[in-house]
Design goal:
The complex is a heterodimer of chains A (152) and B (485).
Chain A lengths: L2 E6 L9 H12 L4 E6 L4 H6 L4 E8 L8 E5 L17 H11 L7 E8 L12 H20 L3
Parallel strand pairs in A: 1-2, 1-3, 3-5
Antiparallel strand pairs in A: 4-5
Helix pairs in contact in A: 1-4
Chain B lengths: L2 E4 L10 E6 L5 E7 L6 H5 L7 H4 L8 H15 L6 H33 L10 H8 L1 H22 L8 E2 L2 E2 L5 H30 L2 H8 L8 E6 L11 E5 L5 E5 L4 H4 E4 L8 E4 L16 E2 L2 H7 L6 H13 L11 H20 L18 E8 L2 E9 L5 E7 L1 H18 L2 E2 L2 E2 L3 H10 L18 E6 L5 E7 L1
The chains are: A alpha/beta (152), B alpha+beta (485).
């Protein structure tokens, strides 16, 4: 059933909203791609993921690297996802692990996490800082290319 | 004086940090939960269009979006001097009950149950949802996910979006319910009632049939003899969406009951220099520091606060559970912090029953969705968020722009209680400067019972948050660090 893009984050907290900005941008530029704003993430994303061949989850992260740095992890390949401890209830790693244990057959075999290193997640603001903004654009392009290669 | 710091590091910076102060004998003197809270959200709201508030405020954090949405919508009703239509009020309440079903379900299985089902002494690596599922079975896990999704779907049907609803407008609601949608909500509600009863059954089997746990719930370190607050209907039964705010005293008697527009006559905020968050207290009793009893204006909100502040539940099966809880734990009020977990499940059943009640109400598919609004002014909206009383207060200018906004969130109402509960839990585990290794678990249990949302922020998953304990001597020199994560 193709690819689903999920954006996680808080649109009001500057760079924390990077994942959601990616989704909103995709809706404008590539409306043929299924993309959802999952805001706080949480176990509900499992319902949305059901039946897709591939899911791409975009979230902002903080590892101390240069803001705008992009991380890519292919969960299905067994790569260790970055330790993202969530402030939104249930973290992403726990959520995906729950999906694997509880509804394995329905989960997308390919699961890609894209993390964008954030600079400011504490102040209120509806746009990202410049370096993160640039990373959002790069991730949008990358997803359009990736999905285009496989028609949906 | 020694200082012990427990620092849960979460994805976002600046979240809660626990500091425990020891006296010269090496015993616990005081404990504080620091909340470097979100600063300036109220300022962020100023100058925005009034009708944007129900859309913006749910995004403060996203954990209880529906609560902020309707606190905002109700504040706008008041500010524009308009009452929602009958159908609109029912639809708002229907969506609100659905939100309680998914929020309380998440808290019990993911946050509360690990402490009990897996056990307070279990290693952190097992005190999590996977440990719970190992005990109760994977099928239960599937049911949890399913019923979470039901709650989200109800919000989506009624609110337009699953996480961030857009339906609440001053004077009513922007979208009605058709018969097909109503039927689907009825089906989900029926299933939720059964699931709530099943969950109470798990609580019975795992917690109540284990005398050690019952003793733990009733043990001294987890008692706090405060006032209790919650919203009630005209018969003094728990109501999440509307009614009056009722406060009961340490004997369970009504202390005061007030309408939402009058909250400022009864609730005051106290400021401490070491935290961004404020502490609320009852104005007439006064702030008396971090103490409980009738002379301290500190009160508790949330599931236990609500059940203590009411005379019963408005649905039959939940009311039965309400009575059973108070009977088992020695009568109202129950002041045991860990009883929050039981109270939460009584509310889960009420929320499911109330969802079903409203979904089968003949008027729910009505088409009278909105009343015309008056002139913009000032208004207060109060709702019971899953974790306690939530207050939105706006002043609008004559163009309908927000001039001033004040938000009091549930965790602020419980903040002093949380600090005291942490202090009391730590007291039993630190003696003469010796720190019992069970400290982190017991302290975590104390604050998790409240389901705190720090500055509308973090939920700390049991055993998962990296924890750090710093021990300082009386000259604030670091002498020991205990770390997890």
């Amino acid at each position: 059933m193709g690819t689903l893009v999920i954006g996680v984050g808080n649109l009001l907290r500057c760079d924390d909203g990077a994942g959601v900005h990616v989704v909103n941008r995709l809706k404008e530029l590539a409306p043929q791609i299924d993309a959802v704003d999952a805001a706080m993430g949480g176990v509900e994303i499992l319902e949305a993921m059901k039946g897709y061949d591939r899911v791409i989850i975009v979230d902002s992260i903080r590892t101390g690297a240069k803001p705008g740095t992009i991380y890519r992890v292919n969960v299905a390949d067994g790569e260790e996802p970055p330790r993202i401890s969530s402030s939104h209830g249930v973290d992403l790693v726990t959520t995906l692990e729950l999906g694997r244990r509880l509804m394995h057959e329905e989960m997308p075999p390919e699961q890609i996490l894209i993390g964008i290193e954030a600079e400011d997640t504490l102040n209120f603001g509806v746009s990202c800082t410049p370096r993160v903004e640039a990373a959002v654009d790069r991730v949008v392009e990358e997803i359009i290319m990736l999905v285009g290669q496989r028609k949906g | 004086m020694k200082t012990i710091t427990i620092d849960p590091i979460t994805r976002l910076e600046g979240h809660g940090k626990i500091e425990i102060f020891l006296n010269e004998e090496g015993n616990v003197e005081n404990a504080y939960l620091q909340i470097p809270e979100l600063r300036g959200f109220e300022r962020f709201c100023e100058g925005r269009k009034a009708e944007d508030m129900p859309i913006i405020t749910p995004r403060i954090c996203g954990v209880c979006p529906v609560a902020h949405h309707f606190a905002a919508a109700k504040a706008l009703d008041a500010a524009y001097g308009v009452e929602p239509t009958e159908t609109a009020r029912k639809l708002r309440e229907l969506m609100y009950s659905g939100y309680f079903v998914y929020d309380h379900t998440l808290h019990f299985y993911f946050l509360g149950a690990p402490d009990f089902v897996v056990g307070p002494d279990a290693p952190p690596s097992e005190r999590n949802i996977f440990g719970v599922l190992k005990k109760v079975g994977l099928d239960v896990g599937r049911e949890v996910i399913k019923h979470r999704a039901y709650g989200q779907r109800i919000t989506e049907i009624l609110g337009g979006k699953a996480t961030h609803p857009t339906c609440g407008v001053p004077g009513g609601i922007s979208k009605g319910l058709n018969e097909e949608e109503r039927q689907s909500i009825e089906d989900m509600a029926r299933s939720s009632v059964e699931f709530a009863k099943f969950t109470l059954g798990i609580f019975d089997d795992v917690v109540l049939s284990n005398q050690d746990y019952v003793d733990l719930i009733l043990s001294d370190p987890y008692q706090l003899n405060t006032y209790n607050m919650g919203m009630v209907d005209e018969n003094n039964r728990v109501n999440f969406y509307g009614g009056d705010v009722r406060v009961t005293d340490q004997q369970g008697k009504e202390y005061v009951k007030f309408g939402e527009q009058d909250y400022l006559d009864h609730v005051c905020e106290h400021v401490e220099p070491w935290t961004y968050s404020k502490f609320t207290y009852l104005k007439e009793v006064g702030w008396n520091g971090f103490t409980d009893g009738p002379d301290s204006g500190v009160y508790r909100v949330g599931p236990l606060g609500r059940l203590n502040a009411a005379d019963g539940m408005a649905t039959p099966q939940a009311d039965e559970e309400y009575r059973r809880m108070f009977k088992t734990l020695g009568g109202r009020p129950v002041q045991s912090t860990l009883a929050f977990h039981w109270a939460r499940l009584v509310e889960l059943l009420y929320a499911a029953e109330h969802t079903l009640e409203l979904a089968t109400d003949p008027g729910i598919t009505g088409t009278d969705l909105r009343n015309p609004v008056g002139e913009p002014g000032e208004g207060v909206g109060v709702v019971e968020a899953a974790r306690g009383t939530l207050i939105h207060h706006y002043k609008l200018d004559n163009e309908g722009m927000v001039k001033k906004a004040n938000l009091i969130v549930a965790t602020t109402n419980n903040y002093a209680d949380i600090c005291m509960s942490i202090r009391d839990a730590a007291k039993g585990l630190i003696r003469g400067g010796n720190i019992d290794q069970g400290l982190l678990n017991m302290v975590e249990m104390a604050f998790r019972a409240y389901d705190p949302c720090f500055g509308c922020s973090t939920h700390t998953l049991p055993g998962q948050a990296p924890l750090k304990v710093n021990v300082y001597d009386d000259r604030k020199r670091l002498i020991e660090t205990i770390q997890r994560g």
